[in-house]
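Comment thread on ticket #2218

A.B. wrote:
> Attaching the input chain for the structure job we discussed in standup.
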Amino acid sequence: MTHPYVFGIRHLSPAGAWHLRQFLTEKKPRLVLVEGPSDFNEMMADITRPETKPPIAILAYTKEAPVRTVLYPFAEYSPEYQAICWCKEQGVECRFMDLPSDVFLALPSGGQERTEDGEERISVYGRLDRQAGEDGQETFWERVMEHAGDADGYCEGAALFGSGLREAGREPEGEMERDAEDAETLAREAFMRLRIREALEEGFAPEEIVAVTGAYHVSGLLSEHALPMTKEELDALPRVEASHTLMPYSYYRLSARAGYGAGNKAPAYYSLLWEALQRGDLRYVPQAYLSRIAGYQREHGTPVSSAEVIEAVRLANSLAGLRGGKAPVLRDLRDAAITCLGGGRFSAVSLAMADTEIGTAIGALPEGVSRTSIQEDFYRQLKEWKLEKYRDITAQDLPLDLRENRNVSSQKAAFLDLHRSFFLHRLRVLGIRFAGRQKVNQDNATWAEHWVVRWTPEAEIELVEAALKGDTVEQAASFAMKERVETAPGMGEIAGVIEDAFTCGMASAVAYATAALQAMAVDAASLEELAATADRLSVVVQYGDIRHLDAAPLEPILCQIFYRACLILPGACVCDDAASKGMVTAAEQLNRASLAHDFLDSRAWLDALEETARRDDLNTKLSGFAAAVLLERGCMDSGRLNLEVRRRLSRGVPAELGAGWFEGLAMKNRYALIARLSLWESLDAYLDTLNEDDFKRALVFLRRAFADFTAMERDEIAENLGEIWGLNGQQVSESVNQVLLETEQKMVEDLEGFDFDF
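C.D. wrote:
> Ran it. Output below, let me know if you need it in another format.
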């Protein structure tokens, strides 16, 4: 022999893994070279540890921002994984032989997951799908290659498939991004040939070496005209400083549905095929697949009989025979499941198929195995705060009660949920999508949180990326918040950092963010920004105790911001109707803060509201809203309200201004307004004074004012109007709430574009 054995595979091929093991057992090599970055060799020991459970992945990443990553995932049925395991079992040396990861990450395509070589050539795969028949080349591959009878047949078929794909990619239809792709392919193959030559120079005979590579590379490695990479060419390759780590992976992430280019449509189904090959009986696949479909249906309330499962197995075997196969493939099984278990409807079994074909399996690694320090800290805290059971691909609810649990003996257990909250909020601040916070419906929810927790490989990658910010989750969260403070364009963003720091239980972060906010508070700011900042600080001060942090240092700055907002409120209300929405929100926030804290200057706030409610040169909706706040707080009596109503809703006031004022008044305290018959008498009298054009102007604002009144509130208003008009209240209610005629609806819709002479 002049060259070693080259065994071509697909990266996730159960038959490839099975036949490769048989091939290795037959050839008894002294060295096995596996496609994969050559700087991953030291990780093989951890990959083959008994505690390591695939799916797993090797993640390579750059050490400087922006972080670029490249993933090399393995399922139990990955040929590369089984080759490494075989070598460990037989005491045979095994090495990775592809370009090192620091080169991969420096290439133009670096930072992307490994894909089947040439798979970017969409047109080539499109032609393969058309030529393969059935439902595409995936089914063709499974029927021909995954059911291959022996190792030689698989090896020859894979090599033929790869060389055909290689040739098809050189045709005009396959030129998409070909130049860059071909350059990378040639560089990789030259490097792999270099590794083979180095092994030969070490004294290994060609027949003592087996090279395991993607089928696409077989002809490239065996070509008599291709040469190994030279030292000069190796030195000229671009490089970037990189590290790598092992991480758990998931079947969902391996699936083509999640976008992984070298994956397959059904990793859990392929796991069944791997089991069948180990059993030596491909009949296991249809039995297991269709039984699991039936089991899922039964668990979710759809009865399926054993007779239906037996009939489905028979149908799958018959379909395989009609289509020229030795055993059913996924297409045959799907057709059988739809026909026999779904009553001919795909929708009836679609969820069961997804569960059976993709699965929810995730891998596991022993403690301390090849992780970054922040990964180690993450897993340590999962264990410490009893969150390990939530490390699952299926989303799970996690309700938290932040109060002290007095029914336990230790301090740590008493505040377990509080520490869980700190941990999850720190992950949230880092952008690690392990848990998402949901709204809590309790009236008093200061002590309650509700999270939905779900582990994904993306969360693991985000953890690795966060390693640039710190060695632990807390350090990285602190660094992230410092960055936000330093780049904050305004007070609101810094107040958001303070709020996050409190929820994370990080006093030091609160301190430096507070100092930054004090420095920024001396500058001019809009009412909306001041109010939003005051609102966030108010929440922190109110509920800081539940998180065992001292909020007292925030009180002086909250007073300063609140007082400034009071001073500029009336002037800020000189605005158009569009801007008034933001002013209403700001006033609500300031009023909420005033009611929550005795140390705030409530007199300054009430004076600002009084001025806003009294002045005629402001946006009238805001004046009306200020009056509503004063009324709600008991600072405006009935006499003052009636006087203001008569003044605002008078013939001399433009219709849109009067109606706009009423709209603002109706935004709060509706029960008290509805109960005041004099208010509705004044509104009725005002509308009677308007001509048709002015009535249309007023109707635009009044329609908006009443748009979100409830049916019960409209009934109560109708009773008031009935009393004023001397009519039956029920009749008025039916008239008010009846469905508009088409012509009436058209008339109302036309009001939206009413011309106010602007």
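A.B. wrote:
> Thanks. Noting for the ticket: The mean pLDDT is 85.
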